[in-house]
Records
---
Amino acid sequence: MARLQGQVALVTGAAVGLGRQYAEALAREGCDVVVCDIRPEIVRVAEELVRLGVRAIGHVADVSKPADVRRVVDGALAEFGKIDILISNAGVWRGGDAKDPLDKSLQDYDVLIGTNMKGVFLFGRAVIPVMTAAGGGHIINIATDHVHTHPGRPTAGGSAMDLYDVSKWGVLGLTLTWAKALAPHNIRVNSFSMGATDSHMLRGFHNNAPSEADVASWMKPEAVCDLAIQLIGEGHTGRTGENIGVWVGFEIELKPVPAAKPVPVAA
Amino acid sequence: MAYLSGKTAIVTGAAQGLGRAFAERLADEGAAVAICDIRPDVVAVGESIAARGGGVLSGVFNIARRAACEGFVADTAARFGGIDILINNAAVWRSTPVTDPWEKALEDFDAVIDVNVRAVMMMSRLVAPHMIVRGGGDIVNISTDYVLPKRREGVNAPDTDLYNASKWALNGLTDAGAQALAPHNIRVNALAMGPTDTEMLRALFKPGGKLAHLGGPDGPPAEILATFMDPADIAQLLVDLLKDGRTGENIGVWAGYPIELGPRKRWDVRMRERADFTGQPLRDFGPPPWTDAPEPVEHLAVGKPTNA
């Protein structure tokens, strides 16, 4: 039974890996989908999504480029007239640390902050007016468990992760602020602090030839996609502003929203 | 002999407020100071420090410009023979409502992120080789208590997405930087600042400012002003931090609480204040932070040193 029939979803970075699986999961739930990726294969991915019985558009787009973002969002509106769901999934990784020469760091910065942080900012800011006009929506930003670790693990992925972590901490800041600003508009904004998942990026870290033991230790994309569908399925009164830990070795589930602590009255 | 005699410190954004207080205090401790700001007033700050007998280099430039940063760091090293301390204090604050027009959003992203994140990365990268040559050093990033809430999350206003994101982003530079530079005896920490009596904060209460309805032509009224922290106390905390030797910590500096380093944080929560912090925001938006009633300080357990 399709749980999201008639909704329009936009997924960035959807040509491969998790992004593509989010798009397929949303299509199976009845969403029309707009997908984009810097990879040209995205056009073929859209064609395959259509076979799931929904409408789909694929755009080749660089999420760090404002003109590309506008083209994707305006194209979605022209075709479908609305955007109910945004999953800002596009992300890249590069290693580097605080001893790197400035030239390298600035190149890494442009790639990492441009895609992972500015891309999230641009897509969010482009769809927020659409969602406020429609009276609601859902935004899910994809961060990393480096910014929200399971108990007993330090924050951050290690010294070689600094600009990657900079970009993902920045995503957390956007999520928290948007959730607060958009709560009156029934727009829910959450992020996934993702641990190791069987994805295009992670397979790339293993030269696209991971061992069976590696793969067995990773989270399954189906479980992560189902978590996203459940989160959206909570509806307009569901949780918002939560940085949801999606951790290896833990249940992949939405935990009950903790009760807000009472705020003491100022003296 | 003064504690920092023979050392050189760079303080960015030193024309006023906290940056000026940091520069003056580091000079009082014996350091030669290289100070910069986009505001020309930084030259007068430099002259007043020089009049007290300290070595000073002043630079007026936009910290977002790579060539200017490179020139300033090179000049500092040449003038004083090395660099030991970097205080990444320069920052911009802008109101950036999520409903802003597209063109303003694009401009705001660059204006806020280039100064608050990219320039911090540039300056840190540029000084690291100088500190490695010296056998050690200290980098201190100035952040906000938005990212290290004392007892509830999300004290930032809903119209500060970019400022908030920029300060969260600093966590990455503080945490990973501390790990990468620890073998070289270079420490990287951040001060997560609550409201402090600075020009940036006072301006919000003046006509045209966001909180003008609470203030007047002179800024905030006395009862609000009294709740702001004193920059001199923060400068003392900075000196305490330089003497302390910890690294990779986000150190909370909250109005209404003791201004102190506190015990070293346990290694797995050093970027956070509470082990249970999950990044959930305030559900009711409540009063601004300076009207918070103080609550007993409850420190986390003291654990092994950071980076152990």
---
Amino acid sequence: MTVATLDTRTPMPHKSERGFFSLMAPGARRAFFYLFVIGVGFIIAFPVLWLVLTSLRPASGMFYVHRGTEFTLDNFFEVFENRIVIKAYINSAIIATLATVLSLGITVTSGYMLSRFRGPIASGWFSIIYVFRCVPYISWVLPLYILTQNLGVYDTYLGLLLPHIAVHICFFSWLMKGFFDGIDPSMEYAALIDGCTRWGAFVRVALPSAVPGLAALAVLCWLWTWNEFLFALLLTSHQTPVLTVVMAQFVHELGIEWNLMSATAVMALGPALLITFFGQKYVITGLKI
Amino acid sequence: MKGWTAHLRAFVAAGAMGVSALMASSAASAVEIKIGYMKHPIQEASIAIMEKWAAKNGVTIIKIPMAYEIFMEKVTATLTSGGDQYDIIWHNDDWGQLWKNWLTPTNDVPGMDTVLKQTVDVAFLNTDGKPTVVPMAHTFGVFYYRTDLIDEAHLPKTWDELSTISQKLQQEEKVKWGFVGSMAMNHSWFSWFWANWTNNCDVLAPAYERDNKVLAANGWKPMIADKCSQQVVEYWWDAINKTKISPPAMISYTRNDANAIFQAGDAAFTVADLTLYGQFNDPKKSKVAGKINIGFLPLGPSRTEPVAWNDIWGWAIPKGVPAERKEAAKKMLGAMLLDKEGQIDLWKATGGPPPNTEVWKTLAETDPLFRRADEVVFKVMKVIAGGYYTPEWPAIHKAYNDGVVGALNGSREDIPKKLEAAAPAIHAAAARTN
Amino acid sequence: MLALIAPAAVTMALFQVVPIILGANASFRDWTLYDPKKTWVGLKHYIEVITDPAFFGLAIPNTLLFLVLSVSLSLTFGLGLALLLNRSFVGQSVVRTIVLLPLMVAPVIASIMMRWMFNDQFGIVNVVLEGVGLPPVAWLAYRWTTMMVIVLADVWLWTPWFAVLLLAGLQSLPKEPFEAAAIDAAGPWRVFRSLTLPMLRPVIVVCVVIRSIDAFRVFDQVWVISGGGPARTTEMFSIYAYVEAFQRMNFGKGSAAALVGGAVIVVFGLVLYRLLNRAVEVSK
């Protein structure tokens, strides 16, 4: 996006702006606006751009990124030589997708319940998810590790998925409650009077209206699971390697292979970018609470 | 909306199939030895030696790399909860006493008589006095210098010389900094500890003592407020603020920061692991490749004889491993120790001195770097182990590091007072040893 | 009604509640990582934590300071971005994607990146400072500059989150009051003060409460950037608990510290929610 692509038909709201900017010609105002947008975008994107630049530097320049002009794709080749990376890539994608689908699947009803029902069960459920969300991971990741071993799901998809879903329950239920709060319940009551069951009213009437919100949450959930470190490090091993664990292995006791780590991180950025680019429309419009 | 729910259902079904397929694929085969380790060239090279033996003896090795960040925590939890995840695990002197009761004694592993006994005995004996480790390589820090800036004859022999030589090089604009080394928690060796050791000083009194009985009899007394330790902190205070031979933010450095600066050619001297020699000397990774060598640690005002530091990395076998696999693991580790060619290859490939002392003579005759290491480390009379060998060591280290970093981060006059204030926390941590 | 929450409740019970109870159990016992004797010690660990001046005197105040700074700054920037993205202009979808960039990088990687960027020797920040003739700063060597870097990393990571939620809120606002304001020729600042902000308040309340709970438990950024240093000066409560449980190996005490901190968050979150809600009521 550059200033040259300016479209004169772009509607500019706040036509009543006064003072400094109103003294300028409309074109200059727009140029200022775009300069501002580009500046803000650059600041936000900078750490990521720097990460990309780092991943293109040879190991001798991975810290002094600004010094020297050697650039190379070797880091990426070296990362891909490790057969486990491809497997981890696929595993990460599967786990992020499944975690998204399942988390949304089980929290959508929970959010609906919080929104439509009153009484001790609803408020009790809300208190429970609120209180348990407040418990810091440090007190329970270790028991979780031992628990997944005892249940025989350590180092499997299931063993990583279920804890992920569990920790999403509070936040997602809370947001989903917001989505359903924003949907007028009178349509559902009409459906109920027409002979629909409560479940039918939920599936046919309430759920479709909540889809934009669900889509938005899906994007966020996918990104969170894709980038999650702690559970992945603890609950997986050689059979179910995921990308973040592969990244963490570039740190060893005597140092960090930052060039390879950043290359892996940049590789992981690809699918995340795709998901975000195509999902951002929903993210922006869907998250009404 | 119908399409959407159908997709969802298909997705869930596919996921469930994936899960069950994956669970089925984890069935066992013949004799499998699972090795839990950290991805590091030395460990990879050591496993490569074992793989030679495994291929000949019909054993399959399954490599389970683990991130360093959680290695110790995860393995500790596995050992204490009786999990059967690993048959062989990477072992390190830092947690030698932590795991001693959960590991199989290794005194009957062939080749254990060829290793340097003191490096095993200092940290890895269980309550019956039996070793619980099979050494893989020696790891210790050495003093690195730039051969393009200074020759061997003019190396700094004392801290003062380190400052004056550094300042001279900096004034001549040959190099940006004199000395760079890490100071942050868990990286104390490359500034605080080596300076302590070269000044007749240590974390606990008496200096250099590692026998817990002696330390306990001495009341787990911290040396942090002693004169020698005060000199250490004042030296680094000066290095950062007065003589300016070290970068201003060195107090926050991990070894990554320090190594990065040395490898970029911005420092004349550093203290780092000898096993990093390969990395420092690799033109692909370092701007100072071909321009480095190692020397003696410069001595502080209280000491006149050289000191060196020597520790090992090793392998261990958890107690809970079934007898058959335990037997195979012992044989394989023994074969690793006795494979002299493999040991020499390990040194050539990584710069990690091999554990079998019988190959040292060959290496000293043929390899200039090993000869130098022999001179500045192995032949030095006073050899110090890097840690303290009580389960409380991480707590002691943390309390010590917080104390010295806190004292350095202020005015020079306040140093003695702050060190005095930090001593009780170190004592409290150490005295919890039972 | 119970059927609606059953799947969520079962998953949570098994993979969150059970481990939390096991962890809580450990906090009452002599439970070191390397030698879990599991003998009952009652409230010993809790008393140790509560009476430790480093907990309520250092870790909790640091955490609260971090929380206030991080949440208020990311709220401000997030709101600014939301207002920006609420206009329509060419290239909007690209800008939206850029704004969401921080959500696409693993927080641990982003934190490592920040740490290198603020290194006094090779960090790009000092290179730029020196480039424009300013003296370089040893960012990570002092308490407040280190705290600033940690807050900055967190603000960078979480501003998009605020922006997204607030933008959705903005877009669901009714159009009429804004049209009326335009007819009255009200300035943009007045429109923002007297229309946008009051109408967005409910969304802001929920965002701030949820984010505060999470900011209170911040770990990755602090651990990677400073490790709580130099010399414990930027130690947050989660670092305190981590160091006790995993560095000093006293899982019982670490767990107790985590749970005391958890209790502080529960109360803090409730009070914050009430206060903010009251502010909303009053403003109506």
